[in-house]
Design goal:
By secondary structure, this protein is mainly α. Helices cover 68% and strands 0% of the residues. The protein has nine helices and no strands.
């Protein structure tokens, strides 16, 4: 089917989240079937207009979790599993390429969160160690590029700053799960970013 003008919804796989939730709570196989179908259909077409690091990073956070939740579903046949995993591999290799990484915007933050989710959950891929080293490099690059030493945020946008501090925290959680010790300067920058955001907001969340 044609994806239409609202391609971001499809590329980011927002529709798969309620399908997985319904499958989890009801056990109704139709939700699993359609969730898997969405991924395989996208993987078959793979429209390159949708391939940006922002979209693929968000996509990976959704479909990595989807595979883990659907792997025991009867609808996850050997053929479906192979197609699903090949698409995860494609996305991982896409993000590995430095030309597909935005190092000075929140796009890179979303991309790296999705990439790290893939690295954490699929150590079986032959490219795992290569991906893992790349993810570590990008986590530090993002902190260095998106924050200043005094804690201010590079993009000068409150919304992006709030989103990125959440992203930096998530990446730190992933690093702990990964057994990777984040350097002290990263933690200190994150602390200063938190203080900066606290200082420019009112108790009700509005900017001063």
């Amino acid at each position: 089917k044609h994806y239409g003008s609202n391609f971001e919804v499809h590329a980011r796989f927002y529709p798969i989240v309620p399908l997985i939730n319904e499958y989890f709570y009801t056990g109704n196989e139709k939700y699993a079937y359609h969730g898997i179908r969405l991924v395989l259909d996208f993987a078959k077409k793979r429209p390159m207009v949708m391939y940006k690091d922002l979209q693929i990073g968000i996509q990976l956070t959704k479909i990595t979790a989807a595979y883990l939740n659907l792997v025991d579903s009867p609808s996850m046949t050997p053929s479906a599993s192979t197609g699903f995993l090949k698409h995860l591999l494609y996305d991982g290799n896409y993000l590995y390429d430095d030309k597909n990484f935005t190092s000075n915007m929140n796009y890179g933050m979303h991309a790296t969160q999705g990439y790290y989710a893939l690295v954490l959950n699929f150590p079986e891929f032959k490219a795992h160690e290569m991906w893992r080293e790349k993810v570590h490099e990008r986590v530090l690059t993002l902190m260095n590029n998106l924050t200043h030493e005094d804690g201010t945020y590079f993009e000068s946008d409150f919304g992006y700053a709030m989103g990125s501090i959440g992203g930096f925290n998530t990446l730190m959680d992933y690093a702990k799960q990964d057994g990777w010790e984040i350097p002290d300067w990263y933690v200190e920058r994150l602390r200063k970013l938190g203080i900066f955001l606290m200082n420019i907001t009112m108790p009700n969340g509005r900017i001063q």
